User: Fold this.
Amino acid sequence: VVGFPIGGDNTCVTVGVVSRIDMQTYSSCGSKSLLAIQIDAAINPGNSGGPCFLSKSNERMMQCLGVAFQVLGHDEAENIGYIIPAEVVQHFLEDYV
Assistant:
């Protein structure tokens, strides 16, 4: 996840692992259930909304998987965040324009 957490002046990168691919209800899309990806990278105010990249150790190229958008607020869980897949973002932008 790339962004400026907590309003910092420098770009910061947090690293995590995809831990679940699931269907989530998106309230901004009329409560439709769409694909979401759960990650354990830290998502904080400032890097929420930032891009999430897939990095392979044997390649220099990275692929944008989507956009970081929320953290699960639960007392029994830490570092559970979600990203909106790039395909969902692209679909939204096509409908918006």
